[in-house]
Structures
1.
Amino acid sequence: MTDFFECVNVILVRQDGAPVRTPERSVELTQVTEWEEGSVRTLQDSLAAEEPLEIRIGGHPLTVTMRTPGHDLELAAGFLLTEGIIQSAEQIAGLRAMAPENGAKSNVVEVELKNAPFDAAELQRNFLAASSCGICGKASINAIRVRGLRQPDPSFRVDPEVLCKLPETLRSEKAVFSRTGGLHAAALFDASGRLIALREDIGRHNAVDKIAGWALLQKKLPLSRHVMLVSGRGGFEIAQKALAVGIPVLASVSAPSSLAVKLARELGLTLVGFLRGRRFVVYSSEFRCLPAGSRL
């Protein structure tokens, strides 16, 4: 079999007929051999693209992360925000994807900062962040805790019936996942359950950073009146990034980690896990999504 890869820009259509465009280079096509009940056939398959992205500040390499191409500027901006390097969009003087001279793929984002102290020797991370873990290589819990995290808005409320509808909305809008089955997603909703923004990536922490970067660049921070839903589990870094942009309610379709629960309880984040069908588990600050006195 002769193997090949072809990057494509896919347009899918939702059940209501509205087009859903996947980001450029987010899907690759390849030739595979399928075995099914004794029959063998050759067919074309869709893969979730995975490529390295280098983020530079003032020409200095900061980090390299494995990501799914698409919304790279949002990813870079969101990363700087959720990692505590910047606090506002006004500190970004320039943000651009570097175009290689040889016509190769653009996998570098250059950032220029202002009024943001930057120590290249201190902040540079000489490691490759694995797509399943955004904090691999960091030395300790103290090194990964972003300074200045605050308690989210205590007045925000979301109805449990609204929460139960969010996973289905997420599934119906995951354009690249529906094609490849290989991506994580982060989605932003308002209190009524209306989808505000959705981003997909091979790494769940990157998907959250893309949402954070979108909100930062659109000047919509803090996200104090929103719910964030992530596919997969809710780890410490996901909770940390949600807190960094002011999210009061963070939900996941799978389990949170013990460290995520500790952070949520410490800072008053409503952390919801196992959000599936008509069931979910609240690990902290249940007052935002459960009626008072509802506990048996």
2.
Amino acid sequence: MSSVLDAARSSAPPQQDVVGVAIVGYGYWGPNLVRNFFDTDGCRVVAVCDAAAARLVAVERRHPSARATTDFDDVLSDPLVDAVVIATPIQSHAELATRALHAGKHVLVEKPMTTSSADAERLVELATGRGLVLMVDHTFVYTGAVRCIKGLVDAGNLGKLYYYDSVRVNLGLVQQDVSVIWDLAAHDLAIMDYLLPQRPEGISAVAATHLSGGQPDVAYLTLSFDDSFIAHFHANWLSPVKVRQVLIGGDRRMVLYDDIEPTEKVKVYDRGVHFAENLDVLRREVNVAYRLGDMYAPVLDQTEALRTECQHFVDCIRTSKAPLTDGLAGLRNVRVLEAAERSVRSGGAMVRL
């Protein structure tokens, strides 16, 4: 028996090394990343970096095994660091990610990936040329709800898709460095990019700024496709209530995704409308027929989305696989955001993608 076990062990692929991770930026999102990477299999948090030394006091207290530093070069020169996770303001993403990739580090960068598609393209080319994983933190793609809807769309359960309608509104957090389009709409554009097989061909956007000296705080985006499918997004920092809803309509079924709902976040409706031709040869009337079927709420994976995302990043590094939200997905997201801004500046004119 022992000889059989020995033979099996010798023929099995060798266990890959644990991935050493450094998180850069310990402000709003950084603590969540640090917490989840500490719970990720096949991973070790080597360092946490932030320009503000005061923030690192909490790191040293909560995670004494991770080295706290204010020096990004210190992170890049550390041979124990295999991957860098960037959770800093968007204006610094391109520079930090570029330096990390040049240092031979895999990169996970917070959304949006960069402030321009030109910078995003350079990151994709650099990561590809060096054989490194480049992943974007499109967190909602890793929720059980969105992955469930993806399964329904891919299986054809919704039938021919008609429309995609998204509302993401709340009171704040008002940003000084980016508009509500880059802050809130970026989430839903990433979700749609993951769910749908087709890509938009154009975008029309309008936005308004109500706070003195601030960025646009209310925006409406409409995306056109090469068929009758249409997508619409509403993003708002000035709403008295928090709404997180996506409605996807198809000719067979329709889906409502309500992220605020505590239990039944996804509801599938067997409802629709179609035109039925009257068989009366003399009248030849065309009647509207409504289908009012059942609704059901599928059981969803309750694992924290960020935990799933962190595990996926580490697994992609260890297996050399492309992430679900890779650099190309980040690039597509930035291109749409750029086009939306151009449309806003031109009074809502359609901008080709």
3.
Amino acid sequence: MLSPRQRVLTRGGRELRLIPRYFDLLVFLVEHRAEAVHRRDIFDRVWTDVIVSDSALSQAIRTLRRTLGDDSRDPTYIRTVSRHGYRFVSKVIEEADENAGEQSNEQAIDDHTGDENARSSAARVVGGTEDCFEPLLQRLVAPASNSAAEEDRRDAAERLHALGTAQALKRLGVRRGHARARALLRDTRWDVAGAGPVPLLHQPGAAAAAASLILLRLGRLARPAAARALSASIGGGLAGLCGGIFGGFVLIIAPGSQAPPAVAAVLGIIGGFCGAVGGAGVGASLSMAEAVTRSHRALWLLLGGTIGGGAVGYATEWLARAILVTLVGVRIPLGGGVEGVVMGAAAGAGYALATRGAAGGLAAPRGRDRLKTAGLMGCACAMAALALTLGNHALVGGTIHAVAKASAGSQAVLTPIGRLIGEPDFGPWTRTVIGTGEGLLFGFGLALGLTYRPH
């Protein structure tokens, strides 16, 4: 019995437990049982708020088949449609919920009592005994030389969770390959309803297990994470470009300014470059943190943003100083490292807060939710930029002004903007307004790029 309203799947009066996303997938397949559902449509419906790898769908289908007692080679419930997707092929009887006074969404799934193999398979998974552990443990620790072998190991890990996570870990012990096996058990626990915790800290081979887990998750989401880093770089670059061009036009029209029209293009290029580099660093670190972690997500995103922003900031600071000394002989105190750390941390915190409901993949909000995410990240970065300027730390605009003042005859001095604001020079209010605007634009553009969902 499948009841979408009550979100319950039962057979013979016994509940068959599924994680929410897999339950949604089963309901979706049943609702569209008259057609073969394309994989793309499944991702758009079931994983609507996150980006996952193609293997996530294969794993979900495998779990549904195991729960229903189905066989992929002779399917009773879910049939694979080659190079397209899946179709639910079992007989379905719709029922009315008269107590609710309306047509319900309940569907009863035929038990197919003649399929004894499917029934015995489901019984082994849900109600198996300790004798079932050893064959699965041997499959779990076996080396995986190809994708099929890796899928077999994942299937064994999921079955062990269904039998009992604590007992599986106890039986696993420290046999050969236990660290890699523990990592796989840790990874699959999120996809099996009722699975127990799989600790890594203070366990034998903790470092090796953690490394295996990171490599496992990175390998699965490496391509989408790299694509997100690129789109984050583009988003940050476009934000910097727009900010630089706008600042250039303000400088041109400011009272007492002698800046030529070309200054808008120059400032736009500088802003675009800085935004793209910052977006690439922070976006890559956030994508990697999101790809490799499932627990304590907010903490790891905060840490990832801090590391990415700091790495880019310190590298840019060193390079800028070297270029100025080598090419024009200008020696001035430049920032970058501290500013990168603070802005990266703010971006990570804003992203974690805005996408706190996402789980199981790379967050990809849509429509208004995406704009809300961009707005929240923009505000977080604006507040960080405000704190930096109040602490006398210059961002891009302040750095350009400092370099221009130290260079004889430069036309990029931002003093006229200060007069436009009401200050005689590039004072604290000018630094605050420009810096806060930079932070707002950077966070907004970074978020739009980071949450871009390829069609």
